[in-house]
Design goal:
100 residues; alpha+beta; elongated
């Protein structure tokens, strides 16, 4: 059974009014939050890592090249507002490059 047209119109208008009141209230809250919210910080970078497979004959050059690249990467990140805690080099397991 359908409600009379007058009640349906009243229900519709009340629903629209409630929606408008809710939206108006929320927009004021959102504006207040936007004004007081601090600027978001960029995440801190814990480590920039270079992965290399050390070769006995060239390990000094490999480490030097990796450090050069890592320092450049750190400079680039820091120039863009990121804080870099450390740079590091990861190699194959120690026994693999010391055997023989």
């Amino acid at each position: 059974m359908r409600p009379p047209a007058n009640n349906l119109t009243r229900f519709f208008l009340c629903s629209i009014a409630a929606l408008l009141i809710t939206l108006a209230g929320n927009s004021g809250i959102l504006r207040a939050q936007q004004k007081t919210a601090p600027a978001q910080e960029k995440p801190k970078i814990r480590a920039i890592t270079a992965f290399i497979n050390l070769d006995r004959a060239q390990y000094k050059e490999q480490v030097a090249d990796a450090l050069k690249m890592l320092r450049r990467a750190q400079t680039v990140f820091e120039s863009r507002g990121y804080q870099v805690q450390t740079i590091r080099i990861a190699t194959q397991p120690f026994p693999e490059y010391t055997k023989d």
